[in-house]
Amino acid sequence: MTKQTTTPKTTTHILGYPRVGSQRELKFAQEKYWRGEITQQALKEVGSLLRHRHWGDQVGAGLDYVSVGDFAWYDHVLGTSMLLGHIPQRHNHGFPDLDTLFRVARGKAPTGCACAASDMTKWFNTNYHYIVPEFTKDDTFTVSWTQLFEEVAEAQKAGHDVKPVLLGPVSYLWLGKEKEADFDRLTLLPRLLTAYQQILNKLAALGVEWVQIDEPVLALELPHAWADSFKLAYQVLSGSTKLLLTTYFDNITHHLDKIVELKVDGLHIDLSASPEQLNGVVAALPEHWVLSAGVINGRNVWRADLAQLLETLIPVKAQLGERLWLASSCSLLHSPIDLDLETELTAEVRQWLAFAKQKCREVSLLAQALDGSGVAVQECQHYSAPIQARATSALVNNPEVRQRTQAITPALAERKAPYAERARQQRAALNLPLLPTTTIGSFPQTDEIRLQRRDFKAGRLSEAEYNTALKGHIADAIERQQKLDLDVLVHGEAERNDMVEYFAELLEGFAVTRFGWVQSYGSRCVKPAVIVSDIYRAKPMTVEWITYAQSLTDKLVKGMLTGPVTILGWTFPREDLSREAIANQIALALRDEVADLQAAGIQVIQIDEPAIREGLPLKASQWQAYLDWAVNAFKISAASAEPETQIHTHMCYSEFNDIIKSVAALDADVITIETSRSDMELLKAFEAFDYPNEIGPGVYDIHSPNIPEVAQITQLVEKAEALIPAERLWINPDCGLKTRNWEETEAALHNMVAAAKTLREQW
Ligand code: GLN
Ligand code: ZN
């Protein structure tokens, strides 16, 4: 073969970089600004510093473009609303500025009036939340907020080749919601396009060649009108700059025939979420389009197998030449920032991982190898060796765990008796009153608890001292609950920093990072653990705490576990095993914990599953398959309970209509849910389905510091009773109380118990 000195260069970029900073600098600056401790100018300087650092990371890795417009003060969908001058009327007073943005996001800012914040919801199937655009018939769009253009100029001034990122018009409309009846937000598209045209013209005037225009909704199964709307949109938008239409989180094959008709100049596809779409897209790619191959996973922490990707991409490169671009699969917003900071991971685990900064390097190295650099090819092989070796590592693959999951039978997921029989036995064993009262698990995480945990982690408090302190908090929580006269008590979760990380630290198979923060919403970040190997339970995890709590009272104490689907959903999963298989491993570990709690005399056990709904695949046609294995994993964890042991579950959201069948299939004896804000409306889904088991519809909103009145609670329970027979109703708050203080908590629970007692007398 002749030496390929003339291989056309592969262009490299990422779809976006995390914005919070490796030390969460943005978070801390924002919060200081909100508290009035720093000026707006000081906050803006932190933003600028971070942008420069992140562009530097991209350039330093050897990427051809830096992404601009991926930075956001709170959220990039809200940033788009600002750019479009599309501010909810109640917040719209003259020219929008940074405080306008914070008011829409949080209801208040250092300046201006306080008004309700806009809703926040999950960004597709990630754990990132965006601010939901609000649409009314008369909405107008005027390019207002100059942040994007300033950032472009800022990056250009620093000498970078700039590729601005814009959320596309169809996705922007889709992600919002109508605030008026009888109106379809899609009708706003023509008006919206005029504003987008202006934005693109401005970018062109700044000398921008390519704009990345994100239309992630193309991964969904869209209604026809929406799918068809792209045609008009991109007809109007084409002309001023080149457009790279970006899709991610799933394949777009189902819309491909429409996509290739659009007036854009290139297409980005997510080959990490859906590698199988590659050939079909390459075959259909219009002749003058570039293909941005999103091969480096932006949503997980694993080092890429560059050697294998190189093999896959060589024929594509041969076919597309310089029309092939390489990229991250999606924005790196969803991945932690810098693996180099993780000095406490074992060397073996560390060499399996890559965070945002390392992923930029992966994109660049792969492109160099693809372009024929022998050194880069070797480097790819060397780089991939650990991740290839991992496949057979004894550390990762545990024969006992594998054997146990392979031996799972359908019967393993079934309780020993049907609900009606269990309910009878539980009534006899538990001796609970009508409308039993309980809470969801956590009690206030006071400053004292946090400080003690910090001191323990830093070695300033011995394990024995820390445990004594925790027992003190448990005893305190039990005493307060007894005084309140609640029926089923909890230990209060003082020992848990986070309902998933706590179990990740105790179960084998997880690695926990120190700085692996990922933005969840606004200034809030989460630090998901990483599932690195087969999961098992080396020893009981919660039994000591729960039995201690039970030893202090004659009332029932409820054991408290996080369910398999939620543990999986809120961690970075391994990718060499299906999500179903991982969930089953976790389920078996929890199943043993349930058995141990029961053997230790605990008669009520709650297995929280708040993440079941958000795990739904993007394409509705795949929901059922997911729900089937998710429900099964939950059932496996619960089914070691004897009929007289009562299994509770908890889900803190309020949309059950479309998943009610699967929620019922969980077959939990009691489910507690969030309902207070919906005024018990959502119980209708349970009524309509004839939901057979017991339900605790939340009777007050724990997110608010307001103390619910007794009458308010009795009214809600009366509404609930119109839908669900009283014998199957529980009385509890919407969710855990860890973010509230004790004063609020006790006042609210006092009224809740009073309401239950009043109703018991009446009924
Ligand atoms: N048991 C947990 C708590 O009370 C449940 C939290 C949740 O549902 N997110 O905090
Ligand atoms: Zn909850």
UniProtKB/TrEMBL annotation:
One of its GO terms (molecular function) is 5-methyltetrahydropteroyltriglutamate-homocysteine S-methyltransferase activity. L-methionine binds at I440, G441, S442, E493, D608. Residues 435-757 form the Cobalamin-independent methionine synthase MetE C-terminal/archaeal domain. Residues 12-319 form the Cobalamin-independent methionine synthase MetE N-terminal domain. It comes from the Bacteria. Catalyzes the transfer of a methyl group from 5-methyltetrahydrofolate to homocysteine resulting in methionine formation. This is 5-methyltetrahydropteroyltriglutamate--homocysteine methyltransferase.
